[in-house]
Write a structure and sequence with these properties.
This protein is of the alpha/beta class. The protein folds into two domains: 6-243, Rossmann fold (3-Layer(aba) Sandwich), CATH 3.40.50; 250-414, no CATH class. It is 36% helix and 15% strand. It has helices spanning 6-20, 42-47, 63-69, 77-81, 121-135, 170-184, 201-204, 222-225, 250-280, 290-297, 313-321, 330-340, 352-355, 359-365, 368-376, 394-398; strands at 31-36, 53-60, 89-94, 109-113, 139-145, 186-193, 208-215, 237-243, 347-351, 389-393. The strands form two sheets. Strands 6-7-5-4-1-2-3-8 form an eight-stranded mixed β-sheet, sandwiched between helices. Strands 9-10 form a two-stranded antiparallel ribbon. Mean pLDDT is 77; it is low at 284-326, 329-334 and 396-429.
Length: 429
């Protein structure tokens, strides 16, 4: 009767609600969402792609069913290659919705999709007290079958499911919902999914009726209701927990940033090498950057014609130490070579100010000072003595080799040269 199927429409209603109520400036920076009676985790699998959600929790009394489905909630390979700034944590609990658990208090959104009709009236009273009196979410979405619509379902006799304890009419559902809202300090709006055929909507309503409960502003949140002396109740058993890779984690951010830096450095190096080769053949084109490349080949400092990025005052000193562009300094190369071997290596020094012109590098680091701080902590990256440039061996770069720890972060595989295992350089120069 319905396209898409009714269960998908119910889940899509929640997804659309999350999209329409994304965190705004001055409000929640990210959402905490719990699905009570999550069953096969279908709704959770849809919500995990919404990066405004930082904590996604599923609760169901059937632990065996949760164990069969939790693999679908794990991160994808793209979540490691392109980690989000938002941090997502998913947890699955086995437990009854009639029991209290402190780990579910104060969520931004609690959903209960086609659950309450499986409860006895006595359990329903406990459910109301747990959700609205103990969890105290900012918003609760509760759906249940509309008994008035049953006459339009072909071949149906009795309830829609053998485990249903009741199926309410619109008046019965609204009476219960308004009573709960009044008792616990909420307001409720009624809607639904699965519309009736043309001309019968007013007579029978939606196939699934939905109540959207919003906590009144004068009602304190659970963080204000429960003090530190209140007993912490932990009735649920944690079956599954996974934290997605996030740029909020310094280790992940550092690996991703280093991969971006090395990839961009390879791109800049290739441009400089082409210009230097052209200059050595006497056929250097007089294009922008050609003069700088010639100066670089002569061991002179390269100055940028203009600064393409906006830097704060704290970055001016760092930018002033080296101009934008690529250059070679034999003095630093000799100093670095003396530490490793008697032979003299030639180095290409890529100023941090040049690397920071990359939108990705600047967005990830935030400032030149932060960029230098991250690179100084990375043992696979060699900096100049004053910390203003990344020092790369020219012969190693000719082979396209660089080292990024784990090789799973950033877009290093998109460089013009395939990454190979680089030699282990000491952190100090």
């Amino acid at each position: 009767m319905f396209s898409p199927p009714l269960h998908r429409q119910r889940h899509q209603f929640v997804v659309d609600f999350v999209n329409k109520n994304k965190p705004q400036k001055g409000h929640f920076l990210s959402l905490q969402v719990a699905d009570l009676g999550c069953s096969e985790c279908t709704l959770l699998m849809k919500l995990k792609f919404h990066r405004d959600i930082e904590l996604l929790v599923g609760v169901d009394i059937d632990g065996a069913k949760l164990k069969k489905k939790w693999q679908g909630l794990g991160p994808l390979s793209t979540d490691y290659l392109q980690p989000s700034y938002y941090q997502l944590r998913i947890e699955l609990y086995q437990g009854s919705v009639t029991q209290k658990d402190a780990r579910l208090r104060g969520f931004d959104l609690v959903t209960s999709v086609e659950l309450i009709e499986h409860l006895t009236l006595a359990d329903l009273g406990q459910f109301s007290d747990v959700v609205f009196g103990y969890m105290i979410p900012a918003v609760a979405i509760i759906s249940t079958p509309n008994a008035e619509f049953n006459t339009l379902l072909p071949g149906l006799t009795g309830f829609r499911h053998h485990d249903h304890k009741f199926e309410w009419t619109r008046a019965e559902f609204q009476s219960w919902a308004l009573g709960v809202a009044l008792q616990y300090g909420y307001e409720v709006e009624f809607t639904g999914v699965g519309p009736a055929p043309l001309g019968q909507q007013d007579a029978v309503g939606f196939c699934t009726q939905i109540g959207v409960f919003r906590r009144l502003r004068q009602r304190p949140s659970c963080r204000a209701v429960f003090g530190v002396d209140v007993e912490e109740l932990f009735s649920y058993e944690l079956l599954y927990s996974i934290t997605y890779p996030s740029l909020r984690d310094n280790n992940t951010l550092r690996k991703f940033l280093v991969a971006e830096v090395l990839c961009f450095a390879e791109e800049l190096k290739q441009r400089w090498m082409e210009e230097r080769m052209a200059a050595s053949d006497g056929s250097l084109l007089q294009t922008e950057g050609g003069a700088e490349a010639h100066q670089a080949a002569s061991g002179q400092r390269v100055e940028a014609r203009e600064n393409p990025t906006a830097c704060g005052p704290e970055d001016e000193n760092l930018m002033g130490q080296r101009g934008l562009g690529l250059f070679m300094t034999q003095e630093e190369a000799n100093q670095g070579a003396q530490e490793e071997s008697p032979s003299v290596h030639r180095f290409v020094a890529v100023p941090l100010a040049s690397l920071w012109t990359s939108p990705k590098v600047s967005a990830l680091s935030g400032s030149l000072r932060n960029l230098r701080h991250f690179l100084m902590e990375e043992p696979t990256v060699r900096l100049s003595q004053d910390g203003s440039a990344v020092m790369l061996k020219e012969e190693d770069l000719d082979e396209g080799s660089f080292h990024a720890e784990d090789g799973d972060y950033g877009e290093a595989n998109q460089c013009s040269q395939p990454p190979e295992q680089g030699e282990e350089w000491e952190a100090s120069v």
